[in-house]
């Protein structure tokens, strides 16, 4: 990994056991494309792109100030976009997820980090360049979310590898 800059994003990392179940379910659909490895399954909260590594401490301090409650997330909608992106999404995103994303985006913008202007879309990417239409499916994957993380993405000949930089708990505040 380049010591002077890193490709960074904040995300909810899919728990290992759930990621394995989701990957098995996806693989059983028999679709063609580039599947995301189970270890890389996540829901992006904020994509930062290439950032100087000297800003890691600032990002850690910023994340530690967020006051967000844990929540339950149900991934129950399968979507394939025209560009071949296949993902799971919640039909009803929890208010706590939206609040976490909004709080994080606001804090990042205030700190001078440039973010994409498109609205937050809660989704977990399953496959890229999916060339086949998925069959009608009724997925239902439940996830108790209790923390969020800062990840670095490194591209290798075998694809992207995500390294967790730090993690913060979601806590109930009164």
From TrEMBL:
The EC number(s) this enzyme carries: 3.1.4.58
Active site: 42, 123
Reactions this protein catalyses: a 3'-end 2',3'-cyclophospho-ribonucleotide-RNA + H2O = a 3'-end 2'-phospho-ribonucleotide-RNA + H(+)
Annotated Pfam families: 2_5_RNA_ligase2
Keyword Transferase appears in the UniProt entry: no
SUPFAM superfamilies hit by this protein: LigT-like
Positions of short motif HXTX 2: 123-126
Keywords assigned by UniProt, alphabetized: Hydrolase
InterPro entries: Cyclic_Pdiesterase (IPR009097), RNA_CPDase (IPR004175)
Motif HXTX 1, residue numbers: 42-45
Similarity comment: Belongs to the 2H phosphoesterase superfamily. ThpR family.
HAMAP family listed in its UniProt record: RNA_CPDase
Biological role stated in the UniProt entry: Hydrolyzes RNA 2',3'-cyclic phosphodiester to an RNA 2'-phosphomonoester.
Name the UniProt record assigns to this protein: RNA 2',3'-cyclic phosphodiesterase
Gene source species: Pseudomonas benzenivorans
